[in-house]
Amino acid sequence: SGGGGRVAAVRSSLQQTAAAFGGGGGQMLLLRLLYSLLMRAGYSMHALYESQVWSLSPAVSGSLASYNQLLGLAVDWLLVGRLAASRGEGRLLCLCLFLATLNSLLESRHRAFLLYAGLHLPVSAVLGRITKTCLASLFSK
């Protein structure tokens, strides 16, 4: 009888989870969770990527990470609201995901550090921050 109760409890939990992700809000939640997981995985591997591809020291890699954080704050403060108001959050989200993919593809085609640090890294930081903010806003609606 104890095993049957556990099976029923697990079945009930799975049904509740499926129901939570079933509607439009659930799909947005799933998208946000997957995006967060992907970004955390990418962020955790980023320092290793920079050290292997660009031969950066931990100090330089840390400086670039700080620069990205400051750039992200500026984007949140000055840019996201204006862009979302003029373009719409869903449309802006799709555009940013497309541009982030294009940026990554272009970055993979060269090994010039100045181009990476001066173009790809800031573009990635801006697009990532806009995407994160749009996802949070769409999820909260």
Which descriptors apply to this entry?
141 residues; mainly alpha; globular; single chain
Notes on the protein architecture:
By secondary structure, this protein is mostly helical. 89% of the residues lie in helices and 0% in strands. Helix 3 packs across helix 6. The longest helix is centred in the first third of the chain and has 30 residues. The termini are far apart.
Given helix and strand content, the structural type is mainly alpha
Mean pLDDT: 85
- Uncertain segments are none
Rg from alpha-carbon coordinates: 20 Å
What is the count of helical runs?
A: 6
Q: What would you call the shape? A: globular
Residue share in β-strands: under 5%
Order of helices and strands: HHHHHH
Characterize the biggest β-sheet.
none
What is the total tally of β strands? 0
- N-end to C-end Cα span: 43 Å
In percent, how helical is the residue content? over 70%
Briefly summarize what is shown.
The protein is mainly α and 141 residues long.
What secondary-structure arrangement, pairings included, does this model have?
Blueprint: H1 2-20, H2 24-53, H3 58-78, H4 80-87, H5 89-107, H6 113-140
Helix pairs in contact: 2-6, 3-6, 4-5, 5-6
